[in-house]
Amino acid sequence: MAPITEEAPPTGTAGNTLLRRLRSLPAQTVMTVEQLGFAAISFSVQAVLLLGGVPNSDFSVFGLVILVPLSQWYLGRALASEPLLVSKAVDRLRGAAATALALGLLIGAGCLVAAVFFDGLTRNLLIAQAIASPLLAVYDHARYVTYVQRRPFLAVLGDTLWLLLFAVAAAVLVATGHWTVFPMYAAWLGAGMAMGLLAALRTGSPLALSAIRGWFRERRTLIPGFLIDAMYLVIGLNGTFYVARLVLGEDGFGLLRKALTPVTALTVLFVGIGNALLGHLAGRDAHQVRRAPATASGLAAVLTGFCAAVLLVLPSGMMTSVLGTDWSEFRLVSLLLLGYVLFLACGQLALQAAKATGWAWLGPRVRTVEMIVEISLVGLLGWKYGPIGSACGMATAWFLGAALAWLGLLGAGRKSAAESV
Q1: Degrees (nearest 5) of the Cα angle 229, 235, 236?
Q2: Better-predicted residue by pLDDT, 263 or 96
Q3: Are 385 and 392 in contact (CB under 8 A)?
Q4: Which of 86-100, 198-212, 365-379, 381-395 has the lowest mean pLDDT?
Q5: Does this model's pTM top 0.90?
Q6: How far apart (Å, rounded) are the C-alpha atoms in residues 105 and 405?
Q7: Rg (CA), the chain
Q8: What burial class does residue 181 get, using C-beta atoms within 10 Å of its C-beta: 0-12 exposed, 13-18 middle, 19+ buried?
Q9: In whole angstroms, what is the distance from residue 102 CA to residue 99 CA?
Q10: How far is 155 from 161, CA to CA, in rounded Å?
Q11: Quick one: average pLDDT of 2-27?
Q12: How does 224-237 read in b/e, with b if 16+ C-beta sit within 10 Å?
């Protein structure tokens, strides 16, 4: 992945272009490692609970609550991080940082209100999430600030520290017999909050809430398209899982969410790579805009293929014992969901490429169709065939979404090329 710089699109001789690419390789490596690290963060807490044999009913509750930080990150990037990447406005860090913090505060307040209407595990998880949301928002935004400042190694360091803090806390909980949902999730959030406090030093004073209005005014041509695209992503994500929970019940949805554990990490990885492409592709010609997401989609296919091969060779008896769930059904659901995440990655990368070059409205158009199809198929097929049906519906919907996204990107590229002649 190419670094985010303030240089103009490559011009000049082939030798100069090659030299520029060679110089960018270290930054490419660092940014790729950072996206892998952040994906590992989202994977870690789910993997620990999965290996702990948490009952499907408890994992079902956890699977819905963890949608909150994921949704928050998508919305925060649309309001603050993505416009900052595209505009490379290193002199406007305060407004973007304050916007990210304000969103975290609003979502935290929403979690507190929602907690009033629940009890037990759900209430405890929502309260913990409410406390952590502001600092998690600050941390995620700070990652993209390091991209703009061309210091992505700082984001790698932050991800590593978060994982280490959580690993230590998780080891203590396991040793003391607290291998359950709430203590583990609270430990994960606590580690993230610690990193959020450190990250606040790099985000341009997130407490400068008075700068929010100026940020929106200066980025009024970018933010609406980004935000609508993110809202479709969030509505589709939450709608899919809440419908699945309704038709599958606690145990069935718990199984589906357990199978989504590696898929969630891959989704965070691919969406993060797509976001990082924004700054690289801004202002590039149509050929470069198509080539970058196509290459990333090919890498996504290789990675998901590797994961599928691992699933196929794992011994059934051992995995059933470890997970406390029938491995034959779990494996089939997981394979279908790997197809889902591959198609989602291909579609998301195409939509991000379109967004980076001014075609931001392609995303809402594609997501409208994809969201309606996905929620409908997840409900209908899940009601008839259980978790396998819901997983099949998710994969089918994003296959359609990816096809529409690439058709739109290629069509927009041809139109731009024709207009430039």
Answers
A1: 90
A2: 96
A3: yes
A4: 198-212
A5: no
A6: 33
A7: 21
A8: buried
A9: 5
A10: 10
A11: 41
A12: ebbbbbbbbbbebb
Q: Which residue's structure tokens are 């019940």? A: 249
d(CA 390, CA 340) in angstroms, rounded, equals 11
CA angle 312, 315, 317 (to 5 degrees): 135
Q: By three-state DSSP, how is residue 388 classified?
A: helix
Q: Which residue type does 411 have? A: G
Q: How far apart are CA 232 and CA 297, in angstroms?
A: 21
pLDDT digits 0-9 by tens, 71-122: 999 999 999 888 888 777 666 778 888 899 999 999 999 999 999 999 999 9
For the record, the structure tokens of 244 come out as 């699945």
**Where exactly are the structural domains of the chain?**
26-220, 221-415
In this structure, what token pair is assigned to residue 131? 């406390």
Q: Which amino acid is at 421?
A: V
d(CA 331, CA 364): 33
Residue 280: the pLDDT is: 57
Cα dihedral 278, 283, 287, 288 sign = negative
Q: Report, as an integer, the average pLDDT of 238-262.
A: 89
Q: Which residue from 277, 268, 329, 275 is spatially nearest to 303, judged by alpha carbons?
A: 268
- Using an 8 Å Cβ cutoff, are 131 and 9 in contact? no
CA angle at 60 for the pair 55 and 65, rounded to the nearest 5°:
130
Q: What is the chain's mean pLDDT, rounded?
A: 81
State the pLDDT at residue 283.
Answer: 53
- 61 falls in which pLDDT band (50, 70, 90)? very high
Q: Which amino acid is at 214?
A: G
What is the Cα–Cα distance from 72 to 59, expressed in whole angstroms? Answer: 20
What are the phi and psi torsion angles at 12 (to 5°)? Answer: 95, -160
Q: Kind and range of the H or E element at 372? A: helix 362-385
User: In the prediction, which pLDDT does 237 show?
Assistant: 87
Going 10 to 79 to 111 to 254, the CA torsion angle's sign is negative
* Residue 237 identity: L
Say if residues 315 and 193 touch (Cβ distance below 8 Å). no
Neighbouring CB atoms inside 10 A of 113's CB total 10
Fill in the amino acid letter for 127.
Answer: I
CB count in 10 Å sphere of residue 132: 25
Question: Is-contact 265 39, C-beta < 8 A?
Answer: yes
User: 406: which DSSP letter?
Assistant: H
What does the pLDDT read at residue 121? 93
- For residue 199, give the DSSP letter: H
- Structure tokens that stand for 78 in this block: 């649309």
